[in-house]
Amino acid sequence: MIYSSELIKGTLKTIVLKLLADNKKMYGYEITQKVKELTFDKIQITEGALYPTLHALESDGLVTTETEYIGKRVRKYYSLSPSGKNKTKEKVSELADFMDTMKFLLDIKTKTV
Amino acid sequence: MIYSSELIKGTLKTIVLKLLADNKKMYGYEITQKVKELTFDKIQITEGALYPTLHALESDGLVTTETEYIGKRVRKYYSLSPSGKNKTKEKVSELADFMDTMKFLLDIKTKTV
DNA sequence: TCATATACATAAGAATCCGATGTATCTTTG
DNA sequence: CAAAGATACATCGGATTCTTATGTATATGA
Question: Is the model's pLDDT at A49 over the cut of 90?
Answer without folding.
Answer: yes
